[in-house]
Amino acid sequence: MGGQTGSARGDARHGPGRFGVTAISISGLLLLWVLAAFLTGDAQILPQPWALVQPFAEALRSGELPYHLGRTLARVGWAFVLAMGLGIALGMAMGRYPRLDRWLDPWLVIFLNLPALVLIVLCYLWIGLNETAAIVAVTLNKIPNVATVIREGARALDPGLDAMARVYRMPALRRLRHVVLPQLAPFITGAARAGIAVIWKIVLVVEFLGRSDGVGFQIHLYFQLFDVAMVLVYAFSFIAVMLAVEWLVLQPWERRARRWRG
């Protein structure tokens, strides 16, 4: 058994690392794209990956790509901060107070099952075709998901740790920081990872329907022109930014949050 374990560790040690696996996986996806474009045989339907280099460079040089990318990222940032803040507060309250949970659970179920498109359209009709309506629509779509995850985390809090903190008369803020939040950290990071993945997609729909700038607006514009290359340029540019956020921010944060559990 020990020899098998040592052999497995040796294979893992000599195999490709985490970044190597990621590079190989993405290379496989690119190879599949090249093959699909070759079989299609029509650059207007599916261009080869290298055919996007020139339109990407032109969009970058003109300043259009950075401008619209920045507008979308600003909306994603505002919606993410608001949804996480309100969702964490709501989820903790519902998880800690069963009576409140019984009253608010039907609301949570309704908003969880309300289509994002309906909320977006209603916000535009009620508030207007403006920035406030866009951010409110995205925030309202994400709060129920965050609250649901955090509620489960609050229900799973160790009552013994809470009782110990009360025996030692820890102030509320210190108890929150040193007792509650470390236990909720995996749930918060899970909600954040799922949240950022969903929020940016909803933001693109919001921009597609009712904004005059942003990646979603540009995709709508080039969709009308049937310019597949530019649709892919804007789509993959934003996906690259979100992958960077995932790999450089969210995944390290998740590993750090789980470290205390050993």
Automatic annotation (TrEMBL):
<protein>
    <submittedName>
        <fullName>ABC transporter permease</fullName>
    </submittedName>
</protein>
<dbReference type="InterPro" id="IPR035906">
    <property type="entry name" value="MetI-like_sf"/>
</dbReference>
<comment type="similarity">
    <text>Belongs to the binding-protein-dependent transport system permease family.</text>
</comment>
<feature type="transmembrane region" description="Helical">
    <location>
        <begin position="19"/>
        <end position="39"/>
    </location>
</feature>
<keyword id="KW-0614">Plasmid</keyword>
<feature type="transmembrane region" description="Helical">
    <location>
        <begin position="76"/>
        <end position="95"/>
    </location>
</feature>
<dbReference type="GO" id="GO:0005886">
    <property type="term" value="C:plasma membrane"/>
</dbReference>
<dbReference type="GO" id="GO:0055085">
    <property type="term" value="P:transmembrane transport"/>
</dbReference>
<keyword id="KW-0472">Membrane</keyword>
<dbReference type="Pfam" id="PF00528">
    <property type="entry name" value="BPD_transp_1"/>
</dbReference>
<keyword id="KW-0813">Transport</keyword>
<keyword id="KW-1133">Transmembrane helix</keyword>
<feature type="transmembrane region" description="Helical">
    <location>
        <begin position="107"/>
        <end position="127"/>
    </location>
</feature>
<keyword id="KW-1003">Cell membrane</keyword>
<keyword id="KW-0812">Transmembrane</keyword>
<dbReference type="InterPro" id="IPR000515">
    <property type="entry name" value="MetI-like"/>
</dbReference>
<feature type="domain" description="ABC transmembrane type-1">
    <location>
        <begin position="69"/>
        <end position="249"/>
    </location>
</feature>
<feature type="transmembrane region" description="Helical">
    <location>
        <begin position="223"/>
        <end position="250"/>
    </location>
</feature>
